[in-house]
Amino acid sequence: MSQSPDLKGSSFTLSVLHLFNNDISETLAYLDEKVAKAPSFFTSAPVVLNITKVEGDIDFTKLKQGILNIGMIPVGVTGSKDKRTQNLAKEAGLAIMSAAKSPSQAPADMEPVKVIHTPVRSGQQIYAKNGDLVILNHISAGAEVIADGSIHIHGTLRGRAIAGASGQKAAKIICNDLQAELVSIAGNYWLSDQIKDEFWQKKVMLSLASDEEQNDVLSFQALNI
Fold first, then answer.
1. Which family does it belong to (predicted)?
2. CA separation (Å) from 142 to 91, 139, 145, 146, 165?
3. Which CATH architecture has domain 114-222?
4. What are phi and psi of 117, to 5 degrees?
5. pLDDT exceeds cutoff 80 at 30
């Protein structure tokens, strides 16, 4: 006996692109640069457009097509101030979304810690589902380590580390030597060019904090131990 489709609520980690003006060429140039630096992370990734600080109309159809051409998938708009703007977004095929603040919860059934003893080579991907990941060696450029929980790296991180992959905001990344292409916690990410010199090639702990507007931001702490 076949079952009927069942529509349920759920939550997913999405990238949010914060716009500060309606200059589409500037926005697309920024995205193109980001995707070029980490294509495996951004290609086909869903993105929400936050237009809270934009004054004036946005050509949503042109912006949507430009983002698709770059390789990301625009799924919706948040921060619209009026119905007219919402209607323009809807006409372009974008969903109207509202940010919801909810407490982060760890998975009900955590798996044992996944421990990797060997180097993680370029092109490899290691994933610890519903648990933490410990790497006792180096991570090469072009390699990717992912965990639903925290990630502990005892060697050099030259590739990408993605913790809290299922949205766990309490996840941490602890790295003995930070030279990463990309670091991410619960969908909040920094590329190598955003990492300050004071943390480069240092032992560092990354976590999520809140800025003045109560947005989630990556926080870096040097570990002198």
1. Belongs to the MinC family.
2. 39, 9, 10, 13, 18
3. 3 Solenoid (2.160)
4. -90, -25
5. yes
**What is the per-residue DSSP string for 163-193?**
ESTTS-TT--EEEEEE--SEEEETTEEEEGG
Higher pLDDT, 99 or 30: 30
pLDDT over 60 at 152, yes or no: yes
Superfamily of domain 15-96: ACT domain (3.30.70.260)
Measured distance CA(111)–CA(74) in Å, rounded: 33
- What CA–CA distance (Å, rounded) separates 142 from 40? 9
Cα 165 to Cα 32, 86, 169, 188, distances in angstroms: 23, 30, 9, 10
| Domains of the chain by residue range | 15-96, 114-222
| Joined tokens for residue 88 | 């323009």
Q: Give the closest residue to 96 by CA, choosing from 109, 80, 72.
A: 80
Q: What is the C-alpha separation between 53 and 80, in angstroms, rounded?
A: 9
Distance between CA 134 and CA 149 in Å, rounded?
11
DSSP line for 91-111? HTT-EE-----------SSPP
Kindly calculate the radius of gyration of the chain based on its CA atoms and give it in whole angstroms. 19
